[in-house]
Specification:
- With 232 residues, the protein is an alpha+beta fold.
- The chain contains six helices and nine strands.
- The protein has helices spanning 55-58, 92-108, 116-130, 135-150, 191-195, 205-222; strands at 2-3, 11-23, 29-35, 39-45, 65-70, 75-83, 170-174, 178-182, 189-190.
- Strands 2-3-4-6-5 form a five-stranded mixed barrel. It has a three-stranded antiparallel sheet with strand order 8-7-9.
């Protein structure tokens, strides 16, 4: 548990996850936190790196928290941090997948935009990542839901003309239009892979590889070609 006195507290007992952290000074941390009511926020945790502080172990990715914070400007001051649940134990590739989700939120969402439904979706994704049988399928569905929340949802049932996708067809994606059928048998993405995004069970491995390539394209469009650092 951590407390710091602040004269005017703005937000109390807010659910949160730490998306990223770095050293801010010899004794403090700079955090990117994700909350349901305030979206992504920048926080300064003063004194968090002190020898008697328990915060370095607490302010980690995949640990659900309850936070108090306040202040003005782009950076808020962390006032209180407590665990809201046991830390999620993500190992190896599953931890890399979680960090990839964190980077997507940091890179794609501006600070201060609240997305309460997406917060719950992110939380459910982390829980699923603990023992997911198909890491790729878990990440593809999170990417889909993130883009949908941002207003850039792709229609995985119909093409740009409104016709049902053909599982035997091939399609390319055109921004602001959708999927357009192409004649080349090796071009674009298979209709079977696209249709798989609306099903409960993961598609075949070769279709998952196509979907990974598709979401790389969709996310790259939102990042204007700037590369991601995390593995996904």
């Amino acid at each position: 548990m951590f407390h710091e006195g602040v004269a005017a507290m703005r937000v109390a007992d807010q659910p949160a996850f730490v998306l990223h952290r770095r050293q801010y000074s010899e004794s403090s941390l700079l955090l990117e936190a994700w909350t349901p009511e305030h979206g992504r926020i920048g926080l300064i945790a003063r004194g968090a790196r002190g020898s008697k502080s328990a915060l370095p172990a607490l302010l980690q990715p995949f640990q659900e928290l309850r936070l108090d914070f306040g202040g003005s400007g782009d950076l808020q001051r962390l006032v209180r941090a407590e665990p809201a649940a046991p830390a999620l134990l993500l190992r190896a590739d599953h931890a890399l997948g979680g960090l990839y989700c964190n980077e997507l939120l940091v890179r794609l969402l501006p600070r201060g935009d609240a997305h309460p439904h997406l917060f719950q979706r992110y939380r459910a994704t982390l829980i699923e990542l603990v023992d997911s049988a198909s890491l790729a399928w878990t990440l593809r569905r999170f990417e889909r839901d993130l883009l949908q929340e941002m207003g850039y949802a792709a229609d995985f049932a119909s093409d740009a003309a409104g016709d049902a996708l053909d599982p035997d067809g091939r399609y390319r994606f055109e921004p602001d239009h959708g999927f357009v059928r192409v004649a080349e048998p090796a071009a674009g993405y298979s209709g079977a892979a696209l249709l798989g995004m609306d099903r409960a069970e993961p598609p075949a491995p070769e279709q998952l590889r196509e979907l990974r390539r598709l979401f790389r394209e969709l996310i790259s469009q939102q990042l204007r070609g700037e590369p991601l650092q995390s593995w996904g």
